[in-house]
Automatic annotation (TrEMBL):
Superkingdom of origin: Bacteria
Keyword DNA-binding: yes
Taxonomic lineage: Bacteria, Pseudomonadati, Pseudomonadota, Betaproteobacteria, Burkholderiales
InterPro entries per UniProt: Bact_HTH_transcr_reg (IPR050679), Tscrpt_reg_HTH_GntR (IPR000524), WH-like_DNA-bd_sf (IPR036388), WH_DNA-bd_sf (IPR036390)
Keyword Transcription: yes
Protein name listed in UniProt: HTH gntR-type domain-containing protein
Pfam families (UniProt xref): GntR
Length: 95
């Protein structure tokens, strides 16, 4: 099934890394195991047309929030059995 991929809004007051993180959280939450998106820095840079800094920040926050795990020289992997509810502060535009 084809999914419409969300894009970032460069006119928004929400920082780029926060927008990227929120998009990825939605994709991770909607993925079914093998459907889980592959998260590579290079792929995300190309997808969102941003520099490395916002991608690295978004991935770091996904790790901190427990959505993904990162293994040096191996990649970034979704946490299995992800069933997380976002607190209001983590919603797009939250504080």
């Amino acid at each position: 099934m084809d999914q419409i991929r969300q894009t970032i809004d460069r006119n928004s007051t929400v920082r780029l890394y926060s927008q990227i993180k929120q998009i990825l959280v939605g994709e991770l939450r909607n993925a079914n195991g093998s459907d889980a998106p592959v998260l590579t820095e290079a792929g995300l840079i190309k997808r969102f047309h941003v520099s490395r800094a916002p991608v690295r920040q978004a991935l770091a926050e996904l790790v901190e929030s427990g959505y993904v795990v990162r293994h040096r020289a191996k990649g970034t992997f979704p946490v299995q059995g992800l069933n997380v509810h976002l607190p209001p502060a983590m919603e797009l535009g939250g504080g």
